[in-house]
Design brief:
The chain is an alpha/beta fold and 340 residues long. Helix 1 links the parallel strand 1 and strand 2.
């Protein structure tokens, strides 16, 4: 099992010394560093800065939001960053949810599975650069032939030749059909909020995955001797996604927690969060679920937890950035030593 560092997206300010964290990860032998986006900082710019200051570590977007960029825009950005990094980019994408897609990007959220499939097909065409790109889909057409088309669009091919004709595409997915799409049409999958012994809920979807298919699981980690203090940031993250990252009618993260056997707790977290009682929602996250989906405890306890992850289908363990620079470095050093 390989190791990675998940920097995430920026909050109100840039992540403290994020380039140095990536350099430390590379020096410790980590395979990949990833960045993210929500509705603030973007996913590509920090990776470009990291690319200039590193040599070997892979650079992953986890997750680039599909509605933020047209397929051609995302593909040409990927071509550019892949050249800058000398072939180290891994393009991880996801559809996000209707609140962000329609509320932030002003795009319709209809038929996200279809949208993802078409988007990936166009990106593959652009990267292959074998012919001018054409596509006649339900959600994307190249050239555009919609109601307001001028009729003057023409098939085009990227001016810049890609360094690699096939940049790895990873999909962030939580629903069984989306996971199956990842297994069939992508090179890897980012699961979320999934304990190491519950990959069975996606067994049918993963059965079609080809050899070499990557599964990159992000985990929050803390070696704080105060157990409750260590668990609090993880509770907050779970409560945010289960309670607040989605609506009452549509929340993919909540469904994962329900599939894992925590349906009653998931409903209570959502009810409290949407009722304006966020602090209570955080405390409603069960200890058992926090421990199952993170690395929290003493060094001896973490070694036992790592055994469970090594026995899972996960190919890369992505350690989420800790609240401070120093804690993040200490966590990376521990994992690197255990992997040696």
């Amino acid at each position: 099992m390989k190791l990675g560092l998940a920097l995430g997206y920026w909050g109100s300010r840039p992540i403290e010394r994020f380039i140095e964290l990536a350099q430390r990860a590379e020096a410790l032998g980590f395979d990949i560093v990833t960045t993210a986006e929500a509705y603030g900082s973007d996913v590509f710019t920090p990776l470009a800065a990291i690319a200039v200051h590193t040599q070997r570590i892979r650079l992953g977007t986890a997750i680039m939001q599909i509605s933020a960029r047209t397929p051609a825009c995302a593909a040409t950005t990927a071509i550019t960053l892949d050249h800058i990094s000398n072939g180290r980019l891994c393009l991880g994408v996801g559809v996000s949810g209707p609140q962000v897609v329609e509320g932030w990007y002003g795009q319709p959220f209809r038929r996200p599975l279809e949208r993802t499939r078409e988007w990936a097909a166009i990106v593959r065409q652009v990267l292959a650069r074998e012919a001018p790109v054409t596509f006649d889909g339900a959600q994307y057409q190249l050239p555009y032939r919609g109601e307001h088309a001028t009729g003057q669009g023409k098939p085009l091919m990227s001016i810049t030749h890609p360094l690699r004709k096939r940049i790895p595409l990873f999909l962030g997915a939580e629903g069984p059909k989306n996971v199956e799409l990842a297994a069939r049409s992508f090179d890897g999958w980012f699961p979320m909020l999934l304990p190491p012994d519950r990959f069975d809920i996606y067994a049918d979807a993963l059965r079609v995955a080809p050899p070499g298919f990557e599964i990159l699981q992000t985990l929050y980690m803390s070696m704080d001797g105060d157990r409750e203090a260590a668990m609090l940031p993880i509770r907050q993250n779970v409560a945010l996604y289960v309670g607040g990252m989605g609506s009452r009618e549509e929340n993919f993260h909540k469904r994962v927690v329900e599939r894992c056997g925590y349906g009653e707790a998931a409903q209570r977290i959502q009810d409290l969060w949407l009722g304006g009682r966020q602090k209570e929602a955080v405390q409603a996250v069960p200890d058992e679920f926090v421990e199952a989906t993170s690395l929290v405890g003493s060094r001896e306890q973490l070694r036992e937890r790592l055994k469970l992850w090594r026995a899972s289908p996960v190919t890369t363990l992505l350690m989420a950035r800790a609240p401070t620079f120093e804690e993040t470095v200490a966590n990376m050093e521990f994992l690197a030593a255990e992997a040696a």
